[in-house]
């Protein structure tokens, strides 16, 4: 694409943005309905449904790793007839998980109104606390291949402060605070 053509696209897009910013709600609704109807006409009308697909049953996960106790399907044995994906014949040993805090145990096991409420809304609570970012140091790759980045060191999650300090520019979650 040559430069004049790219500039033409940019100018046309800016004109469209300006026009759309001046639309009434009704005009915007009509424009979107027309666009959606055109998109629907381009989509295929028929969907191929097959009823002759055979069921495949893997059986039960009845096999166990002799080292760590991980469960497997019988067909997951390697060429040496062992299950090694989990702990590589006992070479990898992870420490046991620490006990859950008492409050969390109570919320997961008791039948109190608070515990029932917690279990009903557990996904909402998880989503609320999942507002974290991944931190990494990015080192540009050598060569002319496609863009990618390598993560070096420990990958961890962090939640930034609600407000940026005077020395730092707003980033991540701080950008979502419009009026405080």
UniProtKB/TrEMBL annotation:
Superkingdom field:
Eukaryota
Where is the stretch described as Disordered? 15-37
Q: Please identify the protein, giving its name as recorded.
A: Helitron helicase-like domain-containing protein
């Amino acid at each position: 694409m040559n430069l004049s053509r790219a500039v033409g696209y940019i100018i046309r897009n800016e004109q469209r943005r300006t026009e759309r910013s001046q639309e009434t709600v009704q005009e915007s609704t009509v424009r979107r309905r027309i666009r959606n109807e055109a998109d629907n006409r381009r989509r295929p009308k028929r969907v191929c449904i097959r009823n002759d697909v055979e069921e495949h049953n893997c059986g039960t996960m009845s096999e166990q790793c002799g080292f760590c106790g991980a469960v497997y399907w019988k067909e997951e044995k390697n060429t040496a007839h062992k299950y090694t994906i989990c702990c590589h014949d006992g070479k990898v040993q992870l420490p046991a998980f620490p006990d859950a805090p008492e409050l969390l145990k109570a919320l997961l096991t008791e039948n109190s109104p608070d515990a029932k409420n917690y279990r009903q809304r557990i996904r909402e609570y998880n989503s609320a606390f999942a507002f974290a970012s991944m931190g990494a140091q990015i080192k540009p790759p050598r060569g002319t291949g496609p863009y990618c980045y390598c993560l070096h060191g420990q990958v961890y999650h962090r939640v930034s402060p609600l407000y940026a300090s005077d020395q730092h520019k707003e980033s991540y979650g701080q950008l979502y605070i419009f009026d405080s």
